[in-house]
Every structure is written in C-alpha cells, then in structure tokens.
Amino acid sequence: MSPGTKVTREVLEAGRGRLRVVGRAGVGIDNVDLQAATEAGCLVVNAPTANTVAAAEHGIALLACMARNVSQADAALKAGKWQRAKYVGVSLVGKTLAIMGFGKVGSEVARRAKGLGMHVIAHDPYAPADKARAIGAELVSFEEAIAKADFISLHMPLTPATSKVFNDESFGKMKTGVWIINVARGGVIDEDALVRALDSGKVAQAALDVFTVEPPAKDSKLVLHENVTVTPHLGASTVEAQEGVAIEIAEAVGGALRGALAATAVNAPMVPAEVLSELAPYVSLAEKLGRLAVQLVAGESGIKGVKVVYTSARDPDDLDTRLLRAMVTKGIVEPVSSTFVNLVNADYTAKQRGMRIAEERVSHDNAAAEAPLESIQVRLSHVQSKFAGAISDGGDIVVVGRVKYGVPHLTVVGPYEVDVSLEGNLILCRQIDQPGMIGKVGNILGRRNVNVSFMSVGRTSRGKQAIMAIGVDEEPDKKTLEKIGAIPAVEEFVFLEL
Ligand SMILES: NC(=O)C1=CN([C@@H]2O[C@H](COP(=O)(O)OP(=O)(O)OC[C@H]3O[C@@H](n4cnc5c(N)ncnc54)[C@H](O)[C@@H]3O)[C@@H](O)[C@H]2O)C=CC1
Ligand SMILES: O=C(O)C(=O)COP(=O)(O)O
C-alpha cells in the first residue's frame, strides 16, 4: 500500500475479523487509522528501513540543488535565458544544518552533511544523545535548532504533536534567509505560513518533496513560488529502495499471516529483532500459561486481577516484558472471548473487559544463567477454580512454567511441583498419593488410543494430596475422562486444551 491509499476506520470495520494485516510498503503510517486497526485486531506492519538511504539521499539532493538554484536555472536556460548573475548560489561548507527528527533518515542525512563539511545540530526529544554524538551531531532544543540553523531539514513523523510545528511563530524565530528542506511529511509545515515567510524573505528558499495534500492543487502558491524547488514525493523512489521495500513488506505480511511475530509491527509491542528471537520460546510459554490459567477458572466472579511474575537473573533494564505480558493477556482472553484476539489488541481487549494485568520481577540469584528468564508465574487473584488443586495458599489460581531445551514446560500448579511439557493437551488429576495411580490412568488412556506424551506427579508430602499432570496428544472423549474420574482415589480432574 502506498501513502495515497487511506485505510480508514470504515475500511477496517468492514473487514473486521477477516482483515488480519495491513502492510505499508514504506515508513509513514499516517494514512492508517491505527486505533481502529488495533480495535479490530488487525496488525499493521511497515517497511521501515529499506527506503531510509533513498530518502536521505533525496534530502541531500534537494539541499544541494536548492543552494545552487539548479531547478530555477535549468528552467530558465530551457526557456532561452542565460542568467549567470541571477543564479549565484550559496556554499554548504561551514554552514549550520539543523536536522529536525534524528531517526533513521535524519541520522543518515546528518552523516552525509558532515561529509559536505557542514556543522550539524539536531532536535529530537526521543533520540539517544550518544547516537548523535557518534555521528558528530549535537542534540539541541527545538528553539535552539531553528534559531541557529542556516539550513533546516525536516525528518520527523507527522503526529498530532508535529502537525504544523513550522508555522508563523517558528518561522519568526529563524535566521532571516534560512533554507528549508522537507522530505518527511507536508503536514509538519503550515504551508500558508511558509508562503508568507518566502514572500517576506524570512525563508530564502524551500525544497519540498511532500505536501499537506498530495498531489497539491495545480495553482498552489507554494508549488509555483519561484523560490521553491519541488518533487512529487520521490524520496523513496529509487530502483533499489522500491525493490528493498517490496521484499521487506512481503516478508512482514507473509510472516504475520503465518502467525510469526512481526518485528516491524506498528501497533503491537515493538521489540527489537534480537530480543524477539531470544524471547520466542518464552512468548509461547507466556501464552500457554495464560491459556491454562483461564481454563481453570470457574464461577461467575470474572477475572479481575492478573499478576505475571518473571523470575530472572537479568538486570530489569535488560528484560523487556511487554511482549510476554501481551501474550499472557492473549492466552487468558482468547479462550473466553468472542472477539478475535491477537497480539495487537490483547491489551486493549483486556482493558475493555476490566482486567488489570500487574507485573512483578523477581531477581534470581544465578549470575551464570544465560537464559533471559528462569520462570514465569501467572496468578489469577481471588477466583473460583474448577480444579481446587490449582489454588495456592493465598486463594489464587497459580501456574508457573519455564523453558527447558527450548520447550515450554509447566512446573507448578497451585502448591504442587510438576514437570510436563506444554505440547498437545493436558489432564490434571488430583488424588491421594498412593502406588499404582499412573498405571491406572495410563491404562484407561492407552485402551482408548490416547497417546501420553509426558507425565509428572507432584505431591505435598508422602501419602497426602498429589496431582498428576498428563500431556496427551489427542483429546480423550467424554467417556474416557469419566473413567479417570471414577477411579476411587481420584478426587478431581480437569482436561485443558493448550
Ligand atoms: N519522502 C519520502 O518519500 C519519505 C518520507 N519519509 C518520512 O520521513 C520521516 C522520517 O522517517 P524515518 O527516519 O524512517 O522515521 P524514524 O521513526 O526512524 O525517525 C523519526 C524521528 O522523529 C523523531 N520525532 C518524533 N517526534 C518528534 C518531534 N516532535 N520533534 C522532533 N523529532 C521527533 C523520533 O524520535 C524519531 O527519532 C517520516 O515522516 C517518514 O514518513 C520516509 C521515507 C521516505
Ligand atoms: O516511506 C515513506 O514514508 C514514504 O513517504 C515513501 O512513500 P512511497 O512508498 O514512495 O509512496
């Protein structure tokens, strides 16, 4: 999808439940109603990196072109006018360039401008100062940037906060004869104010690739202004960038449709790719624990409080749990919700259902541990359970799991320690600890051709209460489950789908 295509609330609502992914073959997603997409559970992915260099190169091209009056002189010469005196330009070396928005494109423009011998300053409230320093650019306030610059290049996204930030007031604070370049979004400039600033000479020239309305009106004063150089949104239009963007977005959409976690998702918790691959088995564990916990709930009290406890040897700053929290939420909400729930709208849906998700981190004293997490605990507070064995001392449903050899395992149910791989389905069975129980249950399942994948017994103490956690590949029929329930020592059992 190109920026000319608008994905509005109406479009998203018409596709609700069926439209799963919107792919933006570029960076700017100001043409997608993100809130409506999130509500509809529709993932929005973009291709954020493949056109960065193209946009930066276009910014530099416009800068150089404008400083030397290339487009005006070209038009004049083609009209038969040889005007060497009229088109004396200005030099770039030693001039101060202010980069507004020091993200991917802005920083690449900075690198190139340094190569041209310019003094580079930048304004970006969210950019790390050391990244700017490494490129040789100094981060300054908005006021300082616009006041000190000879050239101002715009590289911020269009958001409510950046809409028309370049207006009469800000032009008023700039040096007289400043030069403006915009390859970001037209809407960050109040175009009428820019025309006024050009007319008064406050702004010497502007070079614009983007406009508030695209294409702009044929009689646009701005476009027709003699001190304005324009291109029709060509920032990303290089052969290399178009090919790169096409591949990037195809991979993102394909991955998202297969259920892979999209690193370029715009409306889902954003997690860097290296973190994503490290967390992948924990992501699955988090969702499965959520699923197990919710299937253990009984009664009408509803789930109000959910607590997720991460035990980790890592420094809290090194453990980004947003994705895990979203997956626990998804696991809890999905089996009990009629709406299509995914990573995108999991938090939103939980909130709509009045479900609060609290998180806690417990440090695990094992400095040698390489795994990001020791365990994840999911606790549903003050709910009734259809399996009393899942209730811990505090009256909460508690399940704990960990990743072993890359596979999620259930390791605690209520007060019982078990160890069962979370694949296939699960039967939990509570009984009085005594010999022969595994054989009895195993026999019933075996006779019905239900393959047991894993089995584990946990007990409070010898001869007291114990639970069996049995992983099964197939879903046993009702009769088989009843037979298990009818074993005299069995006090309760529950079948859980993973
Ligand atoms: N003309 C064209 O064809 C192209 C245009 N673009 C546009 O360029 C812009 C930048 O793209 P990228 O660098 O890839 O995005 P980016 O997300 O990497 O960088 C944007 C930067 O702007 C900063 N920012 C946000 N609010 C700000 C504010 N109020 N003041 C100053 N900085 C602020 C962010 O912290 C971020 O560092 C976007 O608007 C994008 O749509 C990108 C590619 C091609
Ligand atoms: O990536 C962006 O934000 C762009 O503006 C590029 O737009 P395009 O994909 O060339 O229509």
Keywords for this entry:
498 residues; alpha/beta; Rossmann fold; 60s Ribosomal Protein L30, Chain: A; 4 domains; 7-stranded parallel sheet; 6-stranded mixed sheet; 21 strands; binds 1,4-dihydronicotinamide adenine dinucleotide; binds 2-oxo-3-(phosphonooxy)propanoic acid
Written account of the structure:
Strands 5-4-3-6-7-8-9 form a 7-stranded parallel β-sheet, sandwiched between helices. A 6-stranded mixed β-sheet has the order 12-11-13-15-16-17, with helices on one face. The relative contact order is 0.09. It has 4 domains: 9-50 and 239-257, no CATH class; 52-230, NAD(P)-binding Rossmann-like Domain (Rossmann fold); 271-414, D-3-phosphoglycerate dehydrogenase, domain 3 (60s Ribosomal Protein L30, Chain: A, 2-Layer Sandwich), CATH 3.30.1330; 423-498, 2-Layer Sandwich (Alpha-Beta Plaits). The chain is built from 16 helices and 21 strands. The mean pLDDT is 89. The longest helix has 23 residues, at 273-295. The two termini are 36 Å apart. The protein has 498 residues and is of the alpha/beta class. 2-oxo-3-(phosphonooxy)propanoic acid binds next to loops. 2-oxo-3-(phosphonooxy)propanoic acid binds at residues 2-3, 25-28, 51, 235-237.
Mean pLDDT across residues: 89
Catalogue the ligands. 1,4-dihydronicotinamide adenine dinucleotide, 2-oxo-3-(phosphonooxy)propanoic acid
Report the uncertain regions: none
Sheet-strand content, in percent, reads 15-25%
Alpha-beta classification: alpha/beta
What characteristic shape results from the CA principal axes?
elongated
Query: What's the β-strand tally?
Result: 21
Tell me what the CATH architecture of the largest domain is.
3-Layer(aba) Sandwich
Which CATH C-level class of the largest domain is it?
Alpha Beta
Whole-number radius of gyration?
A: 30 Å
Distance between the termini: 36 Å
Helix content: 25-40%
**The biggest beta sheet, please?**
7 strands, parallel
- What's the CATH H-level superfamily name of the largest domain? NAD(P)-binding Rossmann-like Domain
Protein name: D-3-phosphoglycerate dehydrogenase
Pathway: Amino-acid biosynthesis; L-serine biosynthesis; L-serine from 3-phospho-D-glycerate: step 1/3
Enzyme class: oxidoreductase
Keywords: Amino-acid biosynthesis, Chloroplast, NAD, Oxidoreductase, Plastid, Serine biosynthesis, Transit peptide
